[in-house]
Amino acid sequence: MSSSIDQPGPGLSDLIARLQADAGLGKPRTLPPVHLWSPEHCGDIGLEIRKDGSWWQDGVRFTRDRLVRLFSTILRLDADGYHLVTPHEKVTVRVEDAPFVAIRVDRVTEDGESQIVFTTNVGDIVTLGPDHPLRVSLHPETGEPSVYVEVRRGLEARLARPPYYELVDLAEPVSEGGSLVVRSAGATFDLGEVE
Questions:
Q1: Is residue 103 within a helix (H) or strand (E), and if so which, with residue range?
Q2: Fold (CATH) for 6-11+99-192
Q3: Radius of gyration (C-alpha) of the chain in whole angstroms
Q4: CATH number of 34-95, picked from 1.10.3810.10, 3.40.720.10, 3.10.540.10, 3.20.20.105
Q5: Which tens digits make up the pLDDT trace of 161-188?
């Protein structure tokens, strides 16, 4: 589901509350302090997050969205890769591309300033800006772009195709025939040349 809106009026906090309600979160979710935990590594139990954002264990797909959302809150990126972390355990998670997928983009204009808000497949809602930057990666053979937004502490969401195209629609050309940029929360991000 993807929807790009230019939301005048009440503003960003109202949009975020509505997006949380749409995602079934009701209230802002609190994240555990995984960055403070230092448990022993317990090994590999066959966990994998595929490019489409689906979670798997030993070849079996997780079918309970609530479990995926719960696990997403204890996911951490360390120097040696991705892990699920609790105060007492740390297990390896293989990630095919990015751990999350941005499935929705919205634009809010408040007091003349534009802010772009992404919603992920696991219910994270982030505002593009200095704390949640955008990154573009080009496929080495095809040149096709993949666009990522940082969700938290190095964990990124890859933009699904519909939000990517909507982001391109929100972009402004830097010069004739040149790169496109998007502006949000006082920051500017280069999307590169888009055909």
A1: strand 100-110
A2: duf1285 protein fold (2.30.270)
A3: 18
A4: 3.10.540.10
A5: 999 999 999 999 887 667 899 999 999 9
